[in-house]
Write a structure and sequence with these properties.
Shape: elongated
Helix content: 40-55%
CATH class of the largest domain: Alpha Beta
Structural class: alpha+beta
Number of strands: 10
Radius of gyration: 29 Å
Strand content: 15-25%
Largest sheet: 7 strands, mixed
CATH superfamily of the largest domain: Ribonuclease H-like superfamily/Ribonuclease H
CATH topology of the largest domain: Nucleotidyltransferase, domain 5
Distance between the termini: 79 Å
Length: 320
C-alpha cells in the first residue's frame, strides 16, 4: 500500500514537526499552527444593555452603542451577536394560576414574493389583567388551522394542561381545535364588528343602507343581550334581514355565520366565572409592537429573531 503524505501548501514539499502543534515546510522553512487559535482577546461576558436600549427604550441600533466609535456595520454586527445569543437561549415559562386562558393571533409578511407567518400565543390566568406572551413560531405559507394545531401541540406541558378556554378571531376550524382539547371557545367581537362596520355605508344614497345599519346594530345588541327572550327576537330579525334582497352578499354570509356560531361569541356570558376577554386586541397590540420594531427587516429568520427578542424583553401586556 502506498502511503500518501500531506505536502505543504506553499512549496508542495515535505512537512516536518516543529514543536507540539506547529509544522514546518522542509523547503522554505515556513511554520504554521495545526489548529489556529482565534485572534484577539477572549470575549467578555455578554451583556444585554444594547438590546434593552433598542427593545425597551426605543433606541436605534446605531444609537445603542453610545459613545463607542463604531461604524454602522460594526454596530449591527455587535447587535446581531447579542440578538442571536438572547434568542438562542432556552426560555422557561412561568405562569401563575390554576386555570389559564389561551389567546392566539397571527401576523404575516412577504419576503421575496413568498408569504411567511408568525404565530403568536399568549396565556392569561383567570382574574388577572395581564397576559404572558410566548415565543412566536415562524412558518412559511398562509395562516391555517393545521399549522395552528402544530403550534398549540408545542405548548409547554405545564401550561397546556391548565388551559380551559381559548380566545381567537374568525379563523376557520378553530372551534374543532377547541373541541378536541375540551376547551371553551370565545370568538373576537372586534373582528366581527369591524367587518360589518366596513359595509354599513357612509352615504345616505347607499343601496340598502337602512338594512345594513339595522344588521350592524342588531348584531351589536345580540353580543351583549342577557335576556333569552330578547335574544331570540334579535336572532329572528337578523335571519329575516339576511334574506332581504337589499342586503349585500358578503354581509348576508357574515350574518348567517354569526347566527350559526352565536354561542361561541357569547361564551363570556355563559361562563362568567372565567372572565373571558371578548376581543384579541391585546394580541393586536403585540403585533403592532413587534411590527414597529422590525419594520426594516428583509429576511424571515431575522424577522423571527426580532419578534422573539420583543416578546422576551416585554413579555407582559395588559388585557382587561
Amino acid at each position: 500500500m502506498i502511503i500518501l503524505q500531506e505536502k505543504s501548501e506553499c512549496c508542495a514539499a515535505k512537512i516536518v514537526r516543529f514543536g507540539g502543534k506547529r509544522r514546518q515546510c522542509a523547503a522554505c522553512k515556513k511554520t504554521w499552527r495545526v489548529h489556529p487559535a482565534k485572534r484577539g482577546r477572549k470575549a467578555l461576558r455578554k451583556s444585554c444593555v444594547q438590546l434593552k436600549k433598542i427593545f425597551i427604550h426605543g433606541f436605534t441600533v446605531k444609537q445603542s452603542v453610545g459613545r463607542a466609535k463604531l461604524s454602522t456595520s460594526a454596530a449591527y454586527k455587535r447587535f446581531g451577536k447579542a440578538l442571536s445569543l438572547i434568542t438562542g437561549k432556552k426560555r422557561v415559562i412561568r405562569v401563575n394560576g390554576q386555570k389559564l386562558i389561551l389567546l392566539i393571533d397571527a401576523q404575516w409578511q412577504y419576503f421575496n414574493d413568498e408569504l411567511w407567518t408568525l404565530y403568536f400565543l399568549s396565556v392569561k390566568a383567570v382574574g388577572m389583567q395581564s397576559v404572558v406572551v410566548l415565543d412566536p413560531v415562524l412558518r412559511v405559507g398562509k395562516e391555517n388551522i393545521a399549522t395552528w394545531n402544530q403550534v398549540i401541540d408545542g405548548l409547554p406541558k405545564n401550561v397546556r394542561k391548565r388551559v380551559v378556554a381559548m380566545v381567537s378571531d374568525g379563523i376557520r376550524g378553530v372551534e374543532t381545535t377547541a373541541a378536541d382539547n375540551a376547551w371553551i371557545i370565545q370568538r373576537c367581537h372586534f373582528h366581527l364588528l369591524s367587518l360589518l362596520q366596513k359595509m354599513r355605508g357612509k352615504r345616505a344614497s347607499t343601496q340598502g343602507r337602512l338594512v345594513r345599519e339595522e344588521i350592524y346594530n342588531s348584531v351589536k345588541l345580540a353580543l351583549s343581550e342577557k335576556s333569552n327572550r330578547r335574544l331570540n327576537v334579535l336572532c329572528k330579525r337578523l335571519s329575516a334581514l339576511a334574506k332581504d334582497p337589499l342586503c349585500p352578499k358578503r354581509m348576508r354570509m357574515i350574518t348567517r355565520d354569526f347566527l350559526r356560531r352565536l354561542y361561541e361569541f357569547r361564551s363570556y356570558l355563559d361562563y362568567p366565572d372565567l372572565k373571558l376577554p371578548t376581543t384579541v386586541n391585546v394580541m393586536e397590540s403585540i403585533n403592532s409592537y413587534t411590527r414597529r420594531k422590525s419594520k426594516s427587516i428583509n429576511n424571515p429568520y431575522s424577522w423571527r429573531k426580532w419578534a422573539v427578542a420583543c416578546v422576551r424583553f416585554k413579555s407582559k401586556f395588559t388585557c382587561k
